[in-house]
Write a structure and sequence with these properties.
The chain has 86 residues and is of the alpha+beta class. The chain has one domain: Hotdog Thioesterase (Thiol Ester Dehydrase, Chain A, Roll), CATH 3.10.129.10. It is built from one helix and four strands; from the N terminus they run H-E-E-E-E. Strand 3 and strand 4 form a beta hairpin. The longest helix has 18 residues. It is elongated, with a radius of gyration of 13 Å.
């Protein structure tokens, strides 16, 4: 599985977490990303992302695992698109 697909999975997870909180979160970038091993299409991934704090922007740590093994980790920049409307 390409690394960009793994990062898209992380971004989608953050967006969905924001929706559950009533927020419109947008990932604006990734930094310090490290890919630890190859992932095959039939493997299941788990994403762990630090919670979004109350402010309009944050840098959140994330980790992607597969069967307990680290696949990728890093930091993502997140913005609350609705924050400017308040």
């Amino acid at each position: 599985m390409p690394g960009v697909a793994i990062l898209a999975f992380v971004a989608e997870t953050v967006t969905r977490q924001g929706e559950r909180q009533g927020r419109n979160l947008e990932v604006s970038g990734f930094t310090k990303v490290r890919f630890r091993r190859v992932v095959f299409p039939e493997e299941s991934l788990s994403v762990s992302v630090a919670p979004m704090p109350p402010g309009p922007e944050a840098e959140l740590q994330f980790q992607v695992t597969c069967n307990g093994d680290s696949v990728a980790q890093g930091t993502l920049k997140v913005k609350d698109k609705r924050a400017g409307l308040r």
